[in-house]
Each structure stands twice: as C-alpha cells, then as structure tokens.
Amino acid sequence: MSKELTSRAENYNQWYNDLVLKGGLADYSAVKGCMVIKPYGYALWENMRDQLDRMFKETGHVNAYFPLFVPKSLFEAEEKNAEGFAKECAVVTHYRLKNDPDKKGRLMVDPEAKLEEELVVRPTSEAIIWNTYKDWIQSYRDLPILINQWANVVRWEMRTRLFLRTAEFLWQEGHTAHATKEEAVDETVKMLDVYANFVEEYMAVPVIKGVKTPNERFAGAEDTYCIEALMQDGKALQAGTSHFLGQNFAKAFNVQFLNKENKQEYVWATSWGVSTRLIGALIMSHSDDNGLVMPPRIAPIQVVIVPIYKGEESKPVIDGKVKEIMAELKALGIRVKYDDSDAARPGWKFAEHELKGVPVRIAMGLRDMENNVVELARRDTKEKQSVSIDGLGNYLKHLLEEIQQNIFNKALAFTKENTREADSWEEFVKMLDEQPGFISAHWDGTPETEEKIKELTKATIRCIPLDNKLEAGKCILTGNASTQRVLFARAY
Amino acid sequence: MSKELTSRAENYNQWYNDLVLKGGLADYSAVKGCMVIKPYGYALWENMRDQLDRMFKETGHVNAYFPLFVPKSLFEAEEKNAEGFAKECAVVTHYRLKNDPDKKGRLMVDPEAKLEEELVVRPTSEAIIWNTYKDWIQSYRDLPILINQWANVVRWEMRTRLFLRTAEFLWQEGHTAHATKEEAVDETVKMLDVYANFVEEYMAVPVIKGVKTPNERFAGAEDTYCIEALMQDGKALQAGTSHFLGQNFAKAFNVQFLNKENKQEYVWATSWGVSTRLIGALIMSHSDDNGLVMPPRIAPIQVVIVPIYKGEESKPVIDGKVKEIMAELKALGIRVKYDDSDAARPGWKFAEHELKGVPVRIAMGLRDMENNVVELARRDTKEKQSVSIDGLGNYLKHLLEEIQQNIFNKALAFTKENTREADSWEEFVKMLDEQPGFISAHWDGTPETEEKIKELTKATIRCIPLDNKLEAGKCILTGNASTQRVLFARAY
Fold first, then answer.
1. Best residue in A25, A45, A57, A66 for a mutation probing chain B (most B CBs within 10 Å)
2. Range of the domain at B369
3. Which of B210, B229, B226 is nearest to B218 (CA)?
C-alpha cells in the first residue's frame, strides 16, 4: 500500500478520517472547525453540484445570490429560527484592523471601527432572503418565486468532523414563495423527490424518505421532510431536508400579496438544502478497508490507465496506443486519466487509485498490446479481466453503469439487512448495541417520550417514513397506544 | 417603454444604476454595501464563470476550496498584503448570540463567546492558502500547484456601486506555486492572456494588456499585470489582474522545497483574479439609452420569441409552430425563451427584452406564419428583417456570431477613437476634461510624479502597455526625460 489505512473493524472513525485525508478529498485548516476541500474532493463536489443544478433547473428553478451577512435585526425577526441558530453564529462586529501600537508588525481590531449593528455570517438565508422578497412580491402575478442559491454558510459547531460537521460548509439552499399552501407543500415534496433521486441514482446511496417529528424540525418550519441514509457502522445520516415553512417568514417580514380576489394574503414558503455533508455519506456508504469507492456517475476520474513500461523503447509504443484509446473514451464522455508519471511504480499507482476509488483501472503492457487486449480491474468487486481493445469504449460505458448499479444494490441490501423491527424496550436497546441500524418501532407520539428515549439510548427518531402503513401497537418505552411505527437510529 | 430609463447624456451614473436595477441584474440589500444578484444577473455570471472555468481547466488548473476566515495571525504574516487590506476588513470577534435580558425577543452578542483570536473574513486568500501550501510542498515533485478557487470575498468599501465596488463580491482567485521564477512569471502572463481572450472574445470588451506601476501594484506582489477597458464615459476600468508574487508569501509562511540539486529553496508564487465587477464593464461597454446589450456568447437568453395573437383561435396555431422552432433552436444549442405570458402586450414585451439586452427578438404572427416567415429584430443595430422559417436555426447561429463581432468592433472603434497622445501638461489636462479616454503620455518614471498627477487631475497610470515601444520624450508634468509613454485615465 502506498499509504497505511486504518481498517473499519479496528477504528471506524479513524478509517473515515484516513479516507478523507489520504484519499485527497479534504484537509484540516488553520481555522478551527473549517476544512480545505482539496482538488479531488472539489472535483467530486462539482460533479454533484452540476447534476443537482441541472435537476433544479429542469424543475423550473433559477439561481441567484444573496449577501453573506445578515444584520442582527433581520436575523432575530423570525423568533424560532433565530433561537435555533443563535448559539452557533459567527458575528462580525468590526470593519477595520489597525497597527497594534504595542507590538510591531502586528494588527489589532480598531475599536473605532465598531459596526452600529452586528452582522451574523449566514447560517442559513431565510431571513435575508425573505426581507428581499418583501420588495419583489406585490401581487399573485409575482408568484411563485423559485430561487436556489449555491453558497457557503457558517455554523459554529463545537465538535467538528471533516465533511460531516464543519463550521463552514458549502451547500445549496432553495427558497421558494407561493400563493397557496397546497402549492408550497407540493414544492416541498417535489424537492425531496429530487434529492432522493439524485442521492440514489448518482451517489448510489439508498435513502428513506420521511417527515421529521416536531422535535427534530428545522427551526422556523411547519414541517421538515428528509432523506435518511444508513452508514456502514449502522448509524443514520440525514442526507437532505426540505421544509414547508408555512407563512412564518412571510409574517416575520410582512410579505403579503394581492390575491386574485384582490385581497392581501401572506405568502407561503419552502426551503430545502443539501451540502458537502453528502460527501461524508458517500464515503461511509461505499468505501472499504482499501479506500474510497466512487460511484461512476459522479466519480472525478472514471477510468485510469496505467502504463507498464518494459525498458525505454516500450514507452512511445504504449503511449501512442493509449493516446488513441483516450481519444475514443473522451469522445464517449468518459472521464479518463492517463497516469504516466515516472515518479512512481505501477504497484504504487494501483494502490493509490484503489485508495481514491477510481471505478476502473486499466493496465497497459506491451504483451497485452500485442494480443490487442488490456487488463482491466474493477474497484467495486476487485475483479480483473482481460478485455479486447476493439470496442473498449462501449464496453467501458456499459461496465461503468453496471458498477454504478452494483454499488447501489450492495448499499441497498445493507440498508435492508440492517432495518429491523423492535417490539419491546429490551429488544430495542439490545438491537441498538448489538445490531445497529434502522429500528422500526412503535412510539406514543409525544415529544416527552421521544426525548426520554434519546436520553436513555442516544437514538433519535430519524423520520416517519412517507409510505408508512398505519398499524396499531404499543410504544416501546411507555406502552401507550401507538398508530404507526417510526424509524429510530443513532445518527451522525 | 415599460420602465423609465435615464439617458447617458442626462446622468451617466443614474443610467448605469437604472440598467442594473430595472434590467433585473441586481438589487440593493439590507446589508450596507452588499448587493443581491438577481436571477438574470446570476445567469449571466454563470455563463461567464463556466467559460472561464473551462479555460482554466484547459490550461491545467484545478479547483479547490479554502476557508472563508483568516485568523489574524496569518493575515498579518505578509506585511505589505496585510497593510493593504487591514483598513477594509470585516472581523469576526464572537461565535454566539444570546437573548438580550433588557429587550424581549431581541438578541445580543454573548460577551462570553469572544474568540481567542479574531477571524478576518477573507478579502483575498493568499494568507490562508500559503499557510496550507506549506503542508503540501516538500520537494520539487510537489510543484507546480495550479489551483483556482471560486468564492465570495469581502472588502469593506465606503463608497459602493452595484457590481463595480461592493463590500461582498463573487470572484475566482488562482493561486499557483512554482519551482522557478521563470515558470511563475510565465504563469502570470499566461493567465493575463486567458483573461484578455475571455473578455474580448466572450464579453466583446476590448482590453489593453499592461503592467501596473509600483504605486498601483497589488499589496504583496512583485509585479501586477492587468487588463484595462475603456467605458463609454471615457473612464477606464480594471477588468482583471494577474500578480507575480515572487517569494514574498513563501517567505512569510516559510514554504520551502527541496530542489533537484537537493537544496532548500523558497517557492515562487502567482495569484490572479476576476470578479463580478466584470459585469459592470460589460454594461458600460455595450449598453445604450434603451437598455442593456448582451453579447450573444454569454447572454442568458440569446433569442426571445414573442407571439402576436389575433384572437383566441390563433393561439394554438402560433404556439404549435413556435414549439417546432424552439426544438430546432435548442438542438443547435441556442438559448431561446418563449415569452407567451398573457400578463403583458407585445409592445411592453418588446421594450422589456430590449431593456434586458436580448440579442435577437422574433415576433411571430399569423400572417407571417402563412408566408413562412418571422419578423426578426437585432438588439445591437435595432434593424428589423423578415426571415424565412426554413433554416431559421442556422440563420440565427450565424447571426448571433455576427452580432457578437459587431458589438466587439463597435467597442474597439470606440476605444481606439478615445485613445489619444498628449505631449504637454495643458494638452493632457484639457483632454481629460474635454475628450476623456485613454491618454498616452510621457512620465518620468517616479512615484512622486505619478502621485502628483493623480492629485492634480484624478488621473492614474492605468498601465504600461505590454507591447509598448520605447520612445524618448519628456514627462508631461516635470519635463524630465522619459523613455516611453504610459497609459493614463480617470478610472472606476
């Protein structure tokens, strides 16, 4: 191996960190809780972003950009939202530094440059956006507004983990405004479906669609819809949320419109977002003890070609042939890299590409070339095979799709195997420790019981699945009557 | 007209603001000096960004993402850079808000949540990036690093103008690291060429490539290369800069590498950036008293089709034909919009699309359809013509390129007409007031003279053009000997 990796069995958290750092996805930074997204990680994010962006535009959304800062008076306007984020805000209080008279070459905050009103670095943009929508909306003709924003946001987290929980992260946030409640609810559900489709079809991560309990709702929402995914250690990860905001923000910012009946009415709102956190979900869904496993549809590199030179004279022959193959693959839209650097031996390169999760590796040696074949290795199954150079492009196109499907199927089987029903408190507690995963269990529907279960077990209600069937039962904790099972898990 | 516009002659600055606001590009925000980029303006920025991004990748660069915040101790490490930006920094000092005990429902900065070290919101990222590169660079094998970042930055400007000068703006910043001075200088010039090509070929804005005088250099650079463009009021606008940073940042952050001779050496650096300010240049280069004029290659909408209904029964007939045409145009990669909203009459729509600068407008009426033609209007020349529906797609593809070229030629002619030589102080001063534009004049090469000229006239040396020919002469202010002319102008 080029780089020592911790195995999952040895230390799951360390395994995750090793993959992020040694796989070249991200790095720690000099700023507490903030990460550097390295080129390989950023290329992955670009592929995810571009596909999501296409899906947003296909569903009628447009992009815009709103300020990074939220004046405190706007931030506090929607009370629940403000309360939810106040404890983790970066606050700008000054707009100038000056030379420190006591320390040569050092700077200090200039006390004379204090802002009249503090600015909060956006943890989310409902406040600044709804304050803007106020000026854009007069009549029903101005609705709906279907805007998305790609941006950085800051939430001052105390315990951070690369991608999973960082003080600054990249995300998109959709903020839509509607004339009716029904339309806003439809939008909320539509965007949840977009997220579920994206995460399953492109990231190959199976998800459960559901609704959050009131306890777990976004601060300021009437209803929070979510997609939840199961990681290899049996913990759940919230992969995306879509909020029906009711008229809360319209009322906080006094955004009314003249409806068709010529009456003033408050506007209905939604917001929805996914973030670089998804990369954490990707890593923990598919990777193994040898490194990352990238789903082909969003892999920065889909195919890597490694030349196996035998003496100097073989170089131009192999390079020439690879050049032809590269042209064929690129014409088919395959993201291919030729790793012909002379800084490392083939074995080292193999391990490196395995670590980085490149779906297909092709080794190109002289003898193979004479036989008009290449040696091809799949990252997902580790199978090797000899494949004819004729029609290699089309072969790879199909193979990449097969790998995509295989990775998804594997994750889906894992999720199904690790979703269990518990019908008593003892069973529930035992499962959590011995067979961690999603646990489907009855709950009496009260926030108090939910809170108590969390306190006792660290498990939370991930969601009430959208396709839930009603079923009479008894709450696992209180024994009180329940009408349906909900999905519990310990979570990231 | 749908919306009243101020004319250039009446009030140039108001004309500009009218175009930005009424053209739907941007809006003021609740945060002093920060703007909202509206969907139409953001779509324009996306087209610019995507093209630039392609050009960066074609020249071997990759994207990454570095933290928004720069700890004060890193910010002050490169002294000149710190000094240059200290006076306009947003500074985060606290990480939490709490309920204000004196005002119900209000929040206040929690004095107990004061950061040990203040964080500067990045005005530019050299400091945080070079502090990171330190960990990434050990040997010459780790070089070059060719990284670009798309990000928001904050500079606390006192007098702001939409797009031209805002407290927060969007930009890209390239930060490269090299083993030799020569390689770094080559990179600096290469990226200046990329900028010049992009701005001329896609934005249709002609530019002068040059080098800044020491007075006008980027804080921390050894040399600043720039592209300068001339606006319609005869003022210059700096459209992009590329900096050769020497070893300044490597020394400030102690970034050394083991060279091929096994010796430790400081790394050589460049940085280069363009921003949403370019949109200001675009507006002021091409627009007229009727509104914006978008160059087709980056126009959010290249062709708009407006139906001219005569009675209800004509609607399905026209809509059906337009659907066919839209499909043809889209297949050719033309960005086309069908404006069939019933909220406005055709005349109002015509004015609106003119205001928004859509390059080609097509009016589609029943009688035209019967004759198998459409009425087509060019935004740039305002010419109207009747064009056959057969082969309309290809006709438009060529027409859009012709419009692109025409817009560029017009701007180029304007720049040439308004670039003059001045050979005496009197001539120079008179020109500045009566024939504003670029003035090519002799300067004795001292910072003092440059400063004095600025003080007396508000004109600055925009650059020493790259293709400058040497020519003996006398400084327009001091009469001292000069070896070449330099380019003066009043500037944005």
1. A66
2. 301-399
3. B226
> Residue written as tokens 């050299």?
B126
Q: Which three-class secondary structure state does DSSP give residue A310? A: coil
The pTM of this model reads 0.97
Question: Which of B92, B132, B162, B301 best probes binding to A when mutated, by most A CB atoms within 10 angstroms?
Answer: B92
Same domain, A344 and A252: no
Residues B430-456: b if buried by 16+ CB within 10 A, e if exposed:
ebbeeebbbbbbbbbbeeebbeebbee
Q: Which residue in chain B is spatially nearest to A155 when comparing CA positions?
A: B95
pLDDT at B1: 44
Task: Tell me the two tokens of residue A16.
Answer: 């995750």
Q: What letter would DSSP give residue B332?
A: T
Give the tokens for residue A485: 């099972």
**Do A318 and A169 reside in the same domain of the chain?**
no
A382 — pLDDT class (breaks 50, 70, 90) = very high
Q: Is residue A132 part of a domain?
A: yes
- How is residue A271 written in tokens? 């917001």
Whose CA is closest to A239, among A252, A230, A248? A230
Query: Do A221 and A280 fall within a single domain?
Result: yes
Count how many pairs of residues, chain A against chain B, have C-beta atoms within 8 Å.
Answer: 194
**Confidence tier at A105 by pLDDT (50, 70, 90):** confident
Q: What is the pLDDT of residues B426-451, one digit of tens each?
A: 999 999 999 999 999 999 999 999 99
| Residue partners of B138: CB distance under 8 A and separation at least 6 | B257, B258
In order, the DSSP letters of B180-213 are SHHHHHHHHHHHHHHHHHHHHHTS----EEEE--
**Beta strand ranges found along A366-458 (DSSP E):** 373-378, 384-388, 419-421, 438-442
Single out the residue of B55, B338, B22 nearest to residue B196, CA to CA.
B55
Residue A1's pLDDT is what?
44
Nearest alpha carbon to residue A290 among A168, A381, A409, A392: A381
- B429, burial (CB in 10 Å: exposed 0-12, middle 13-18, buried 19+): middle
pLDDT tens readout for residues B393-412? 999 999 999 999 999 999 99
- Please say if the pLDDT value at position A383 is more than 90: yes
Based on the fold, state whether residues B459 and B375 are members of the same structural domain: no
Distance from CA of A49 to the nearest CA of B (A): 13
Is pLDDT at A347 greater than 90 in this prediction?
A: yes
Q: Taking CB atoms and an 8 Å limit, are A71 and B96 in contact across chains?
A: no
Same structural domain, B388 and B318: yes
Answer whether A95 sits within 8 Å of B86, measured CB to CB: no
| Joined tokens for residue A23 | 């796989």
CB contact under 8 A, A74 and B156: no
